[in-house]
């Protein structure tokens, strides 16, 4: 069989035929969102108007709630004080000595528990904290008791602290509390003696420790002399303050937090009636005239503030040059008291006006 010659006009035949490529896939064109048409649904009804008795609170119309809070606080405090007064029974012999410091040895184990709730409710605990924070340099705390101020000192601003109290039992409690609170701070000294005796000078600080056992009267004075609730238990409070002034530098500070007589005669009558029983039980004459004691001591008073119906005294002072400086400060404090009473009366009138307006509306 003979081969046919190739036809030059036809393309040569390939051994296989390539298939045509499929067309490229094209995504459909994006659909356009439907045009916005406002809803034809029924609209919500308007909010109902406020009731007729409702009045929008206006600026400055919050006197009534605040008055209620203060009334509750004063009422609770008054009830607490009244129950405390009723719980005190007069002593059997009525011959309670002025020096009642010996009671503290018996009270030492439970003293913090006995006074803790009272100091918390009356704000004394918070004022202890604020007073101790002001201490700095070489510090002497007189009548330290069980060390109720020990946890409030800013140790970074204190070079040394000397705690002094007549009761050895109270001092034991204070030392144990300090050891647990500040185990690494050793620039502290403990002296058991009466504050009516010459007070020891600041200790010698060697590194982070003080020289133990050296409590003799030396040259040198303290930057801060502090006492809280100590004038009530000493038979000679004026002498004690003068002793504190003698141990303080001329440019130092004397800080006191005491309790005594009130602004009000009705409260002073209760304090006078219950003072013997309170002193016999707790070792504290709480009806002393702190203002008169400060005046007679000759301290140069910087500031006096009073709280809790005037029974709690906050005193900032410096060693004075003689008698009379305390009297001038007390006159200023008396003037401030009258100004405070005027503001209280003005506040009562404003509260009455607010109550009357609220009733009319």
Characterization of the model:
- With 361 residues, the protein is of the alpha/beta class.
- It is built from nine helices and nine strands.
- The protein has helices at 63-86, 103-107, 111-122, 124-133, 168-181, 237-246, 265-282, 290-297, 325-360; strands at residues 137-142, 158-165, 188-192, 205-206, 209-210, 222-228, 248-259, 300-307, 312-318.
- The strands form two sheets. It has a seven-stranded mixed sheet. A two-stranded antiparallel sheet has the order 4-5.
- α5 links the parallel β2 (158-165) and β3.
Shape: elongated
CATH superfamily: Vaccinia Virus protein VP39
Category from helices, strands and their pairing: alpha/beta
Number of domains: 1
- Average pLDDT reading: 78
Strand order of the largest sheet: 3-2-1-6-7-9-8
CATH architecture: 3-Layer(aba) Sandwich
Helices, by number, come to 9
Task: Give me a quick take on this structure.
38% of the residues lie in helices and 16% in strands.
Strand-helix topology:
Blueprint: H1 63-86, H2 103-107, H3 111-122, H4 124-133, E1 137-142, E2 158-165, H5 168-181, E3 188-192, E4 205-206, E5 209-210, E6 222-228, H6 237-246, E7 248-259, H7 265-282, H8 290-297, E8 300-307, E9 312-318, H9 325-360
Parallel strand pairs: 1-2, 1-6, 2-3, 6-7
Antiparallel strand pairs: 4-5, 7-9, 8-9
What are the key terms here?
361 residues, alpha/beta, Rossmann fold, seven-stranded mixed β-sheet, two-stranded antiparallel ribbon, 9 helices, elongated
């Amino acid at each position: 069989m003979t081969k046919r010659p190739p036809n030059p006009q036809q393309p040569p035949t390939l051994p296989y035929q390539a298939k045509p490529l499929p067309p490229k896939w094209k995504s459909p064109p994006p659909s356009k969102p439907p045009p916005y048409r406002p809803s034809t649904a029924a609209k919500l009804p308007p909010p109902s108007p406020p009731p007729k008795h409702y009045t929008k609170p206006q600026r400055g119309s919050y006197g009534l709630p605040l008055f209620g809070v203060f009334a509750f606080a004063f009422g609770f405090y008054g009830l607490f004080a009244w129950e405390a007064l009723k719980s005190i029974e007069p002593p059997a012999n009525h011959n309670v000595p002025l020096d009642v410091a010996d009671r503290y040895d018996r009270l030492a184990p439970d003293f913090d528990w006995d006074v803790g709730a009272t100091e918390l409710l009356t704000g004394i605990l918070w004022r202890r904290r604020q007073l101790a924070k002001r201490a700095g340099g070489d510090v002497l705390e007189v009548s330290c008791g069980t060390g109720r101020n020990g946890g409030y000192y800013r140790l970074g601003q204190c070079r040394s602290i000397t705690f002094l109290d007549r009761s050895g039992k109270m001092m034991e409690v204070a030392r144990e509390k300090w050891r647990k609170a500040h185990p690494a701070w050793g620039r502290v000294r403990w002296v058991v003696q009466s504050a009516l005796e010459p007070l020891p000078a600041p200790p010698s600080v060697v590194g982070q420790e003080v020289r133990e056992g050296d409590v003799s009267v030396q040259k040198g004075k303290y930057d801060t002399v502090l006492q809280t609730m100590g004038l009530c238990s000493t038979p000679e409070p004026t002498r004690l303050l003068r002793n504190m002034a003698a141990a303080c530098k001329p440019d130092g500070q004397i800080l006191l937090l005491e309790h005594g007589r009130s602004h009000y005669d009705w409260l002073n009558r209760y304090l006078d009636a219950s003072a013997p029983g309170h002193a016999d039980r707790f070792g504290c004459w709480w009806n002393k005239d702190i203002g008169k004691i400060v005046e007679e001591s000759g301290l140069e008073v910087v500031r006096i503030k009073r709280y809790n119906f005037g029974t709690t005294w906050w005193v900032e002072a410096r060693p004075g040059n003689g008698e009379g400086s305390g009297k001038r400060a007390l006159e200023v404090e008396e003037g401030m008291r009258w100004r405070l009473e005027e503001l209280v009366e003005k506040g009562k009138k404003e509260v009455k006006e607010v109550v009357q307006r609220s009733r009319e509306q």
